[in-house]
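Internal QA ticket QA-208
Title: Verify multi-chain structure generation after dependency bump
Assignee: T.L.

Test input:
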Amino acid sequence: MQKKSTRVRKEEIIQAALAVVGEKGVRALTIAAIAEQAGMSEANIYRHFGGKDDIYAAIGNFIGSEVMGKAATIAGGSRRPIEKLETIFRSHISLLSEQPGIPRFVFSDDVHLTQRNVAEFLAVRIGNYVDTIAGIIAAGIEEGEIRQGLVPRETALTLLGMIQITVFRWTIGTASFDIKGDAEKLWGNFIGLVS
Amino acid sequence: MQKKSTRVRKEEIIQAALAVVGEKGVRALTIAAIAEQAGMSEANIYRHFGGKDDIYAAIGNFIGSEVMGKAATIAGGSRRPIEKLETIFRSHISLLSEQPGIPRFVFSDDVHLTQRNVAEFLAVRIGNYVDTIAGIIAAGIEEGEIRQGLVPRETALTLLGMIQITVFRWTIGTASFDIKGDAEKLWGNFIGLVS
DNA sequence: ATAATATGCGAATACATGTTCACATGAGGT
DNA sequence: ACCTCATGTGAACATGTATTCGCATATTAT
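Actual output:
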């Protein structure tokens, strides 16, 4: 087996772990499963991570920085508020459907209850995410694209709820669930709700 | 130890299991934990249930019939559509905050992936639930209480998403999270969205 | 080239978990 | 009162899981 630096191995292990969560859920995120997915021995995983808690934290960091950061980029663009919201909504649904491990991990009660520090970290990131979307909505109201009288923060939470329930129905239902089509319908109705 | 009939023991075991899930999550739903919570031996649990899968199914049935049925009762009442929606929303938030085991179980990826039959059953029940709420919204549109142009089904999903994200933020955050207050704010904004 | 160090792995360990079994005991029908 | 059967339990078992340890080997610096 070719040797690689810890930096590279850490990324491989995190990606393998996310793949396992996506396919079999957080419950199946065992060291053995990660090792098999990553194509290395179980003992080797301990060369690069202190233990399972350490791996949980690394997954949380990855999701927090790589994923949640995207919204900030879109928010900083020069398009109109409604367009920004649509882009964020679409790319979010797209990402979650391609990397099911991400929502599984974030919504896992196992993580919430046994990895409190990871949960707190994610809670803060999600809070920032809500703020970002609320800011776009506030701008939309000011520019007249979005109806007056709406509360930006609560409207942002409503939008996130749409994403969450879509992912949930996709996860719980059969594999043939058309998540993209479902999301489109919800978005169309959201336009009607806010304009 | 006093002996009781299987019928009554089954209920005790299910309630104990729901309590365990509410306090420590689905991951911690072990036979040992249920036995301790219910105050009986592990072996005795096997007197009344075939095994863990059987217990999962029983929990799913309980949640499906006892809980989801409430919405149908409210929907059948004689109040105005918006009032019905508010009652459903409030009682739902109230129930989930008092019995955290219910959302933990329903949203558990462990259940979704390893208990497919339970997941399918819940999916059908949730589908009925969506239909019920969509029916109320359709009536609201017809009576002029709710804005025209909205799609009942998608608006119903949006309402459910509000509930789901509220429970999620409550679960992931600190124990001091004010779920009732948060839900009230969301409801107030929902009124603005649909009317 | 060689020493030093980081990387890799099979095997062993300690513990948790689902399940079964042989045996005890209490409740209800006769 | 007694018999029968459902209910209850401690102990044992097989398997799964996280983690550690001694040893091998590739990479890097000198």
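Spot checks passed. Residues 1, 3-6, 9, 40-44, 47-48 of chain A lie near DNA strand C (CB under 10 Å from a C1').
Status: verified.
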